[in-house]
């Protein structure tokens, strides 16, 4: 799952909502910019936390045991040994 853009999307949506509310409430320019800046920072942080959690859920780190099973060199060596064992058994 591609979660790279989640923090930006969340912060921009929060900024859009903030701009609409500030326009309706008739905020002054300075107060509006301070509020918008704080909202963007807070929601970007919340987006980073959400991105981290989604990455943990959908992309769990493989265990050490799984890495050994997934190693193609290790698997091919084990397969070759098994083939040799079967051949020697068939000859006997």
What does this structure look like?
By secondary structure, the chain is mainly alpha-helical. The protein folds into two domains: 1-61; 62-92. The chain contains four helices and no strands. It has helices at 6-25, 29-58, 64-70, 72-91. Helix 1 packs antiparallel against helix 2 (29-58). The radius of gyration is 28 Å and the shape is rod-shaped. It starts with 5 loop residues before the first helix and ends with a helix.
Present the secondary structure layout:
Blueprint lengths: L5 H20 L3 H30 L5 H7 L1 H20 L1
Helix pairs in contact: 1-2
Tell me the radius of gyration: 28 Å
**What characterizes the major β-sheet?**
none
Helix count from the secondary structure assignment: 4
Count of strand segments: 0
Q: Which whole number gives the mean pLDDT?
A: 84
Region (Disordered): 63-92
Keywords: Membrane, Transmembrane, Transmembrane helix
Biased composition (Basic and acidic residues): 81-92
Transmembrane segments: 6-23, 35-54
What is the gist of this entry?
The chain crosses the membrane at residues 6-23, 35-54. Helices cover 84% and strands 0% of the residues.
Quick tags:
92 residues, single chain, mainly alpha, 2 domains
